[in-house]
Design brief:
The structure is a homodimer of 453-residue chains.
Chain A: H1 2-24, H2 35-51, E1 55-59, E2 66-71, E3 80-86, E4 106-108, E5 111-113, H3 121-138, E6 144-150, H4 160-166, E7 175-178, E8 190-195, E9 197-206, E10 212-213, H5 214-217, H6 224-233, H7 256-264, H8 269-276, H9 289-294, E11 298-307, E12 316-317, E13 320-329, H10 335-349, E14 355-364, E15 367-368, H11 373-387, E16 392-396, H12 402-410, E17 414-418, E18 432-434, H13 435-452
Parallel strand pairs in A: 3-6, 3-7, 7-17, 8-16
Antiparallel strand pairs in A: 1-2, 2-6, 4-5, 5-18, 8-15, 8-17, 9-13, 9-14, 10-12, 11-13
Helix pairs in contact in A: 1-3, 1-13, 3-13, 4-12, 11-13
Chain lengths: 453, 453
């Protein structure tokens, strides 16, 4: 281990500089204009895995390619660890809110700012560098390693499950390790006990044949903008609960041990509020903030567009209105159950005079940790050694839909260890990653590989 | 008169071709990038008034200029008629919904399609050509004429009232004639008995410090998109009435004669619905469609924008949401009364965790005709002769805020005679004007000038 840690220390400057090259590639999977960039990111990563000592391939799918790296030098008797991450990123818009350009990594105050720095290129690349360090310093590893990096995580991983199914034998493993989440706080490394799922929709409301003059038609003509507002408002009741019949049917009651675990974490609600620059918090009555974030479902507008939104006062009665609305789900909700429930709700609340169309953009199942205590302990001690502080168990409000699929298809439990920090602006302007975490995390992962052996 | 009508017939091709030149100038007053075009339209018009035989000037204001044309050859004993119109146009967006480009006038099925063809360049230019015909054919007119064309009607005429006040002596007149409205139906020329007013706002909702990840923050953080939907939904009650306390306080009860006048007009609700391509109509319970359009107020979303509205599923919890919301007002509501009522309402319905800012973009007062019967009859007979059908009295759902100001500042009643046809896509893609109306309307206006003498 000492040699590995020394190697990391000595090569840290190069590791960072390589990461910045990775971050410069605008691999925005949601936008077809970036398809070439997304492929370039895959090829770049495959080359780096190869130079770290793994065999590597870029494998085509019907969408963006999968990068597969393998090192099987530990032999068939040793355990096999599959490391999963993604090399695609969220769209960077709105660009004008970035302090430095999203695809020009910029260091400020011990952080690197760039789209993908935290989610997930930074964390994925820490695994690549930890593997390189172990193989370079020791020449070997006590585990077989498969690195599986996809380019479609931000668009719902449409081609990853088929890929895993078709390559199940090659991907067979004992545990899946994923670093695509946050630590609970700076200096408090964490292992996850849950993830929320996702059901993401577009609601399209159609009114008259086209945009109309709001004076000449306003009154008898039902306005799709007003109708959409009414529809969205109907999705919550006065207590902040989701007012869709049957929505909570599959929500599990969490055990008292987990809720006690949540209560035991330090949480300063005033600091949280202030950091967000809001006067008050909201959400579902009767639950704490951490519970609202981790173990309760949500319904959020992600976008709304109708009519004229430019400069000045255009007196138009719009012909259309659209909202992107998504639900974060908790165990044991299933995204496939949400669409019919929402459709039935829309049928009840949509006013006469407009029509509504519901389009499902993507979904992902929530997850509860099933990993055995021995592996949890291995992760905890690796983190504690690297960070000098005990690891905590926490939930995660975001979604990594593929986790449930990995567990089902590969019959191996998932271990989720994340290194981003709260407030790192995931999916938002000025996304950043801590340079200290980049260094300590590589050390923690190198230790983890040793302990999983 | 026969000479004038012959002149119109003989010069109709040129009149059209000149109108198309006028329509080619993208004088979009709301967009500063078109300031040069807006001025070019003013200069073009002034030149055409001069060649029609009027003296003309382009007069600067703090915004877009005013065009003033004058012909005072009838002498001080003759009545003076002020003709008002506007040479600015609404923004043409969304461009992709236009069949032919908005600033390339295109003839199809007896119509010319272009932004401004109906509102108001086409109608304003009919006055210019009727004046030219009278002066060319007879060498004189029985009335003095002032043509006042502004370039800010579509942005609320911020500089016209000061202009009228500063030039009240020069603009002194006996009647103000305005053609910026519709006929009741094809072949049914009309004079207006009312206009609705307008109070136009932007509602800005601010949530957290910026856009957030909907998974990492969804739940406790109040979503400005959801909050805005709740606010907009709260503006109407279940009966389609506006649910703002005090909003109806100043609405006049209309006399039975006017309501009977409205009821007497032919109106095919199924044809109306079908033409709009909607299954049902809505609006305030207890009123007919024409009443909802003419004598009842409205509250319409003109635009909404929040979060991510591009391709794909971005899981963002937006930091901001904005709606353009406007109210059509009826006599005797006043736009200045609406803002404090709406502000008080927002104070009651805005959820904790977001802040709201109300910005008034512009307002205009509603109007009830006060013109004496003699002038009304002059208009009716001029229209009947030109169209071969009796003129009807009708209301108008749109707003021409300056009408009330003219009456107050110039102490002269307004006579509103419009030539656009219902369904002409005012403020919408594929705006059009009937070529038949362009011809007949010029004849009707030439006759009207004669009768006003």
């Amino acid at each position: 281990m000492p040699d590995t840690l020394t190697f990391i220390e000595q090569n840290l400057g190069r590791f960072r500089s390589e990461l910045y090259d990775f971050l410069r590639i605008p691999s925005v999977s949601a936008k077809s204009e970036h398809d070439g960039d997304t492929r370039a990111a895959a090829e770049w990563l495959a080359e780096k895995l190869a130079s770290a000592g793994l065999t590597s391939e870029v494998i085509d799918t019907e969408g963006h390619p999968v990068v597969l790296g393998e090192w099987r030098g530990a032999g068939p008797a040793a355990p096999t660890v599959l490391i999963y991450g993604h090399y695609d990123v969220q769209p960077p818009e709105p660009l004008e809110l970035w302090t430095s350009p999203p695809f020009e990594p910029t260091e400020r105050n011990g952080r690197v700012y760039a789209r993908g720095s935290a989610d997930d290129k930074g964390q994925l690349y820490m695994h690549a560098k930890a593997l390189e360090a172990c193989l370079a310093a020791d020449g070997t590893l006590p585990i077989n390693v498969i690195v599986l990096a996809e380019g479609e995580e931000e668009v719902g991983s449409p081609n990853l499950v088929p890929f895993v199914e078709q390559n199940a034998a090659r991907l067979a493993c004992d545990v899946v390790v994923i670093s695509d989440s946050n630590m609970y706080a700076e200096g408090m490394p964490s292992v996850l006990f849950s993830l929320r799922g996702l059901a993401y929709f577009e609601i399209h409301v159609k009114g008259a044949r086209g945009d109309l003059h709001s004076g000449q038609f306003g009154g008898p003509v039902v306005n799709p903008g007003n109708a959409l507002a009414k529809i969205i408002a109907s999705l919550h009741d006065a207590d902040g609960r989701i007012a869709i019949d049957g929505f909570y049917d599959d929500v599990v009651e969490w055990d008292e041990e987990t809720r006690e675990q949540i209560r035991s974490l330090p949480f300063d609600i005033d600091a949280y509020r202030k950091e967000l620059e809001v006067d008050a918090l909201g959400g579902e009555k009767g639950w704490s903030t951490l519970e609202k974030l981790w173990i309760r479902p949500t319904c959020d507008v992600n976008g709304i567009l109708s009519g004229y939104t430019g400069e000045g006062a255009k007196t138009v009665l719009p012909g259309r209105a659209m909202a992107k609305v998504s639900f974060r789900l908790v165990p044991n909700q299933h995204p496939d159950r949400v669409k019919p429930l929402l459709e039935a709700h829309l049928g009840k609340v949509t006013p006469a005079g407009v029509t509504v169309e519901l389009v499902e953009l993507h979904g992902g199942r929530p997850w509860k940790a099933k990993v055995e205590q021995r592996l949890m302990d291995a992760a905890s001690s690796a983190l504690e050694e690297a960070y000098g502080a005990p690891a905590v168990l926490q939930g995660e409000g975001g979604s990594i839909p593929i986790v449930v699929d990995f567990e089902e298809k590969l019959k191996a439990p998932a271990l989720l260890v994340g290194f981003a920090l709260p407030g790192c602006n995931l999916h938002a302007p000025d996304e950043w990653f801590s340079l200290d975490s980049f260094e300590k995390g590589i050390g923690a992962l190198a230790r983890l590989y040793g302990r999983l052996g």
